[in-house]
Amino acid sequence: MAQQVRGVVARGKGQPVTVETIVIPDPGPGEAVVKVQACGVCHTDLHYRDGGINDDFPFLLGHEAAGVVEAVGPGVTNVAPGDFVILNWRAVCGNCRSCKRGKPQYCFSTFNATQKMTLTDGTVLSPALGIGSFADKTLVAAGQCTPVNPAASPATAGLLGCGVMAGLGASMLTGNVQRGDTVAVFGCGGVGDAAIAGAKLAGATTIVAVDLDERKLAWAREFGATHTVNASSGDPVEGVKAATGGFGADVCIEAVGNPKVLEQAFFARDLAGTVVQVGVPTPQMRFPDIAMIDFFGRGGALKPSWYGDCLPSRDFPLLIELSLQGRLPLDKFVSETITLDQVEAAFHRMERGEVLRSVVVL
Ligand SMILES: NC(=O)c1ccc[n+]([C@@H]2O[C@H](COP(=O)([O-])OP(=O)(O)OC[C@H]3O[C@@H](n4cnc5c(N)ncnc54)[C@H](O)[C@@H]3O)[C@@H](O)[C@H]2O)c1
Ligand SMILES: [Zn+2]
Ligand SMILES: [Zn+2]
Question: Which residue in 5, 88, 167, 297 could disulfide with 136, CB within 3.0 to 4.6 Å?
Fold first, then answer.
């Protein structure tokens, strides 16, 4: 029977979010209902609320979550009720041209639940990134559930469901950081600090953190930054070059979502270096006006990074093991734990730069 639970809804562009009663259908074929235990507040939720992703209001926000499978629909084999899972927003289909060529991390046809969650008046909700987990329970495609070691705490495990995975993968997978590399990370929120932690895990010897905010730079050092550059008090390109022997970094990661910062990351690279863009632009943003000779003359690569090019079934369990072994400080990303009613306030704290991650614990 359909159930009614509480969920955080964005009804219109820029309007404060509200906690509403939402209706969760029983899982249909290939679907699962998950009892959400924790869900991080990601900047992408704020982008949704502000109309920066699309206009399909009302949105059921939240997408960085861990919980326990409550029920599964017919034909579900990858998870069972009781499994502790991290939700992912790129479930692989197994059938598209990318999956068939053995590169499921680039799956073209990511899928979500086909049934809809609604408000009590029947208004269909658009779940953020096909998840919608600022809610007591949510309906997802079973492939969006990745079982991991239940010894992990939900508040930290859930972070792998989006921002922390995107950042770790931006350096370890998309940027392919190698031992001895120099890395610069522009924007040290949850995503950027995860990129720093990933660069450290991969063996980078110089890791330059760039941000406008001294608090963020101090936190970045805790994740492994060896140098910091405050972009509000000087040219960050020169700052990165100064920290890398005058050459620029092998891998520059843009984790803000800003064309000016992408341009800085482009010019802060060493010859043949890689720029990874993990920050999400708005539809209005244009690519920076870069002379083609600079693109050609510097060589290297420009690589957008969706979800850190992760493969949830491969990467979530292994990253959870690394964190349980004390080799990946996932718990450091949790600045505070909050309730569903405090998501709007958490957006403001995020905008003021006071937190890395606020995590709703249910
Ligand atoms: N590609 C993906 O798969 C993916 C996944 C999750 C989040 N994201 C995106 O990553 C970005 C970062 O997310 P977050 O949750 O870490 O956000 P956040 O707001 O916590 O962090 C952004 C950081 O950038 C800094 N910043 C802002 N302007 C800057 C500038 N001009 N120069 C240097 N630093 C600047 C801020 O001070 C802040 O520390 C967002 O755009 C988010 O939507 C992408
Ligand atoms: Zn596929
Ligand atoms: Zn996110």
Answer: 5
Specify the residue for token string 């029983």. Answer: 26
- Asked whether the beta carbons of 210 and 233 are under 8 A apart, the reply is no
- If you take atom 33 of ligand 1, which residue's CA is the nearest one? 211
Whether the bond into 150 is cis, omega within 30 of 0: no
Any idea which ligand is nearest the CA of 98? 2
Structure tokens at 26: 């029983």
**With a 6 A CB cut-off, is 167 part of the ligand 1 pocket?**
no
- Per-residue pLDDT reduced to its tens digit, 264-276: 999 999 999 999 9
Mean pLDDT of the chain: 96
Residue 163 CB less than 6 A away from ligand 1: yes
Q: What is the DSSP string of 50-78?
A: TTSS-S-PSEE---EEEEEEEEE-TT--S
Ligand closest in space to the Cα of 216 = 1
Residue whose entry in the numeric block shows the structure tokens 């409550």 = 70
Six-digit token pair at 321?
A: 């093991």
Q: What is the pLDDT of residue 250?
A: 98
Burial of 201 from C-beta contacts in 10 A (0-12 / 13-18 / 19+) = middle
Across the beta sheet with 118-119, the strand order is 118-119, 18-24, 3-10, 59-60, 126-127
CA atoms of 196 and 224, how far apart (whole Å): 6
Whole-structure pTM value: 0.94
Residue 110 pLDDT exceeds 80: no
Sign of CA dihedral 50, 55, 61, 66: negative
Ion ligand 2: residues, Cβ under 5 Å: 93, 96, 99, 107
Which atom, in ligand 1's list, is nearest to the CA of 356?
Answer: 20
Ligand 2 centre distance from Cα of residue 313 (Å)? 14
